[in-house]
Amino acid sequence: MIKGTFGFDNPYSFGDMLQVPANGDGKFIPNMSMGIGYTSSAIGIGVGYTMSFGDKVPIYKGKVTPKNQLQLGHTPVLVLNALDNALRIAVPIQVYHKSDKLVGDISDKVTAVSMDAQIRYYTGLDMLPQIRLYLRFGHYDTEYKVANITTKTKAESFGFDFRLFFGAMVEEVALQPIVKIQFNTALGKNHNTTRIQAINILRGSQTVNGVLKNDKNPYTLNIIPALGISANSDIVSLYLEPSLGLKITGSASKNVKEAYDLGYGVYGEIYITPVKNVEWYF
Question: Which superkingdom heads the taxonomic lineage of this protein's source (predicted)?
Answer without folding.
Answer: Bacteria
